[in-house]
Amino acid sequence: MTMYIYLLRLGLAFLFGSMIGAERQYRLKNAGLRTNTLVSLGSAAFILLSICLTGETGDPSRIASQIVTGVGFLGGGLILKDGMSVRGLNTAATIWCSAAVGAMSGLGLYWQAFALVLFVILTNCLLRPLGDLLSRHSVFERKNVHLTYTLTIRCKEQIENRLRVMMLNAVTVDPHLQLRSLRSSDDDKPGFCFIEAEIYAWGKHDIMIEKLAAQLTIEYGVTDVTWEVLQTHSE
After folding, report:
1. How far, rounded to the nearest angstrom, does the alpha carbon of residue 220 sit from its chain's CA centroid?
2. What pLDDT is attached to residue 84?
3. What pLDDT digit, counting tens, does each position of 6-60 carry?
4. What is the DSSP secondary-structure string of 12-80?
5. pTM confidence score
6. Distance CA 114, CA 36 (A)
7. In whole angstroms, what is the distance from residue 146 CA to residue 191 CA?
8. In sequence order, which ranges of 137-191 are alpha helices (DSSP H)?
9. 136 touches 155 (CB < 8 A)
């Protein structure tokens, strides 16, 4: 392989990776311009290394399969669990596509790599509004789907009654929520206790539960607040 071909393929991997990364950087994602560019460059470099070492008799597909595995570990580090939601899946998938763009550039599949870049950018830009629309009309928003939430609070014993009143008031404001149970239990540490509330909801109320948890967290004497969806009921 001549130096011209090497630089051409590596340069295209740089260009294509930066095109994907620019869109991610614009949306302030964890993996932005530099990350996507480096992933594309690295994938192309490994493919080019395989070609340089083995020439026409080699099998770059073996290197490509290892790139897929390696980038999978990199993408896994971008996925974070935040409460009951998971963040970073789209960013990890974009990183995976950047690796494919780099591998194609390294193999000399220029137009195929450029087409993939366009599809990745279109997916991240155009399908976002559609995804938001579908989420707003998901099955969990329908009235025939009911959820049971559990809210657990660790606090000082002297504020237990006040927190009970706060939760009761928050639930009674919304006619689609019903407080099923409100229990207290002792903590191993003297002077502290646990309060566990079970809330029955008609439809999805994750935002409301998260706001209630945030409000309880800043109360004096509260050391920990957690919530989860205990079960789902469909009619």
Report:
1. 32
2. 46
3. 888 889 888 988 888 888 888 777 778 888 888 888 888 888 888 887 766 666 7
4. HHHHHHHHHHHHHHHTT-SS-HHHHHHHHHHHHHHHHHHHHHHGGGS-HHHHHHHHHHHHHHHHHTT-E
5. 0.54
6. 15
7. 36
8. 160-173
9. no
